């Protein structure tokens, strides 16, 4: 009896799971990863995009429910203060859709804004529909751009396309981390 090792490229289903899991770590890198897998023909583009969107949207909804769970803890409410909660709820209520759309495109803002939406009891239907539309538009635009660029680059690069894809993916992971470090350093120095 021979056992065959399953590797990441062994099936579209395994690749889909890897895309789904990657969305919970770095969404933008996951978008690049899914688009590059689709570009190389390892997974069908519609399937890659569907799994990608599902993972991103599940993460968004998870943040909302994380905030909703925190709302029920008296210690958290006491730490923030009922007065501040009331002011924030009123502010967010008037700007909910624009705030949710803005959170999709401003790096680092999804966690606090989506969790605050749940904490401040934004109606779930408002949250779910606004984030679905924003996520679909943003993810679709990035996926399509990377996929289209990747198809052209693959033709130009020939056998070097896999190395180029690895470099692009590495940059997608490293650039946000370096940017965050630079901002933190400038903030400590009082320049931001």
Quick structural overview:
With 192 residues, the protein is mainly α.
Global Rg: 20 Å
Protein structure class: mainly alpha
Order of helices and strands: HHHHHHHH
Query: How confident is the prediction overall: mean pLDDT?
Result: 82
Enumerate the spans where pLDDT stays under 50 for 5 or more consecutive residues: 1-6
> Whole-Å distance between the termini?
63 Å
Count of runs of 4 or more consecutive helical residues = 8
Instruction: Work out the count of structural domains.
Output: 1
Number of strands: 0
Biggest sheet descriptor:
none
Topology:
Blueprint: H1 12-22, H2 27-39, H3 45-71, H4 74-80, H5 82-105, H6 110-119, H7 124-157, H8 161-189
What report would you give on this structure?
This protein has 192 residues and is mainly alpha-helical. The protein has one domain. It has 8 helices and no strands. It has helices at residues 12-22, 27-39, 45-71, 74-80, 82-105, 110-119, 124-157, 161-189. The protein is elongated and about 60 Å long. Residues 1-6 have low confidence and may be disordered.
List keywords for this structure.
192 residues; mainly alpha; disordered N terminus
């Amino acid at each position: 009896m021979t056992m065959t090792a399953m590797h990441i490229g062994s099936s579209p289903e395994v690749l889909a799971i890897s895309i789904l899991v990657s969305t919970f770590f770095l969404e933008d890198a996951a978008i690049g990863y899914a688009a590059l897998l689709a570009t190389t023909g390892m997974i069908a583009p519609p399937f890659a995009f569907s799994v990608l969107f599902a993972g991103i949207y599940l993460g968004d909804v998870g943040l909302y429910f994380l905030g909703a769970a925190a709302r029920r803890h008296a210690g958290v409410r006491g730490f923030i203060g009922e007065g501040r909660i009331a002011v924030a709820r009123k502010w967010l209520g008037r700007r909910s859709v624009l705030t949710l759309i803005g959170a999709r495109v401003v790096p680092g803002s999804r966690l606090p804004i989506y969790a605050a939406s749940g904490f401040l009891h934004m109606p779930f239907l408002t949250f779910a529909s606004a984030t679905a539309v924003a996520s679909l538009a943003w993810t679709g635009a990035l996926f399509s751009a990377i996929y289209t660029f990747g198809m052209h680059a693959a033709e130009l690069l020939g056998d070097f396309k896999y190395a180029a894809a690895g470099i692009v993916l590495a940059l997608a992971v490293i650039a946000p981390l370096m940017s965050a470090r630079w901002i933190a350093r400038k903030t400590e120095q009082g320049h931001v």
